[in-house]
Amino acid sequence: MHWIIAPVVLPALLAPIIGFVTRHDIRLSRIASVSGTVLLLAVAIGLALQAAGGETTVYRLGSWPAPFGIVLVLDRLSALMVLLTAALALIVLLHAIATGWDRRGRHFHALFQFQLMGICGAFLTGDIFNLFVFFEVLLIASYGLMIHSGGRERMRAGLQYVVMNLAGSTLFLFALGTLYASTGTLNIADLAAKVPQIPVEEAALVRVAAMLLMIVFAVKAALFPVQFWLPATYSNAPAPVAALFAIMTKVGAYAIIRIHTLAFGPDVASTEGIAATWLFPAAIVTIAIGALGVLGARRLMPLIAFSIVGSMGTLLVAVASFTPEAMTAALYYLVHSTFAAACLFLVADLVMSRRGGDSLTTMPPTAQNGLFAALFFGAAIAMAGMPPLSGFLGKLLVLDAIREPGAMPWAWTAILVGSLFTIVGFARAGSTIFWKSTSLALADEATGGSAPATGDMAIGARPGELTPVMAAIAALALLAVLAGPLAAYLEETSAQIFDREGYISAVLTPEEAAE
Amino acid sequence: MSDGAHFLFLIALLPFVGALVPGVMIRAGRTACASFTAVPTALALILLMTFAPAVLRGEVIQAEIEWLPQLGLSASFFLDGLGFLFATMILGVGLLITLYARFYLSGDDPMGQFYTYLLLFQGAMLGIVISDNILLLLIFWELTSLSSFLLIGYWKHLPEGRQGARMALAVTGSGGLAMIGGMLILGNIVGSYNLTDILAAGDLIRASDWYLPALILILLGAFTKSAQFPFHFWLPHAMAAPTPVSAYLHSATMVKAGVFLMARMWPALAGTDAWFYIVGTTGLITMVLGALIALFKDDLKALLAFSTVSHLGLLTMLLGFGTEAAAVAAVFHIINHLTFKAALFMTAGIVDHEAHTRDIKRLGGLRHLMPVTFVIGTIAALSMAGIPFFNGFLSKEMMLEEASHTKWLDSYYVVPVLATLGALLSVAYSFRFIAHVFLGPVRDDYPHKPHDPPFGMWAAPALLTVLVLLIGILPAVAEPIVTAAASAVTGADLHPHLKIWHGVTPALYMSILAILGGAVLLAIHAPLDRAWIKAPRPEAKTIFDGLVAALAAFARTITEGVHNGAISRYLAIFTVASVGLGAVAFAGGGLSERTRELLPIPPVIAVGWLMLIVATVSVVLMHRARFRALVLIGIIGLSISAGFAYLSAPDLALTQISVETVTIMLLLLALHFLPKETPRESPMGLKLRDGLIAIAAGGGVGGLVYAFLLRDIDTISDYHIANSYEGGGGTNVVNVILVDFRGYDTYGEIIVLGIAGLIIYALMQALLEGPAARRLRNVDYSQDRSRDRHPLMMVVVTRLLMPIAIMVGIYIFLRGHNQPGGGFVAGLVIAIALLMQYMASGFAWTQARQRIEYHAMIGFGVVIAGLTGAGAWVFGLPFLTSGYTYVHLPPIEEFELATAMLFDLGVFLTVLGAVMLMLYSLSRIARYAGSADVNVEAMDYDPSERQSDAEEAR
Question: Residue limits of the MrpA C-terminal/MbhE domain (chain B) (predicted)?
Answer without folding.
Answer: 687-765
